Here is the input.
Amino acid sequence: MKSRQRGISLIGAIIVALVLGCALLLGFKVVGPYSEYAAVQRIIGLVADEGNNGASESEMRQSFARRSQIDSIDDVIKPGDLVFSRHGGRIVVEVEYSRKSPLVSNISLLFDFRASSLHSRK
Here is the structure.
C-alpha cells in the first residue's frame, strides 16, 4: 500500500500567510476612518436634534465643536464645514470630507465621506 501525504506545502503556507496579512493590513487601515465616520454621523444627528428644539446655527456649531473634541474628531471636521438646511420642516446637517490613510510606502487609501442627519439613526 502506498501512503499518500496530505496537507499544505511550505510555499502554499507562505502564500496563504501573505494573503491573510494583506487582508488584515487593509482591514486595520479601513477601521479608523469608518469609526470616525460613525462618530461624525452620530454627532450631526444630535446637533440636528438640538436645532429642531430651537438652537441657533451658532449654538449648533459650538455643540458640534464640543462633541467632536470629546470624540477626538476635531482634526477631521471643523464646525465651519457644516452645512445647514431644512427638509420637511426639520433641520438637516450635512458635511462632506475626505480622509487619507497611508497603506504602504507611497500607497494610500482615500475615503470620501458624506454624512447627513437625514441618515442618522436614533
Notes: The radius of gyration is 22 Å. Residues 31-119 form one domain. The chain has one domain: 31-119.
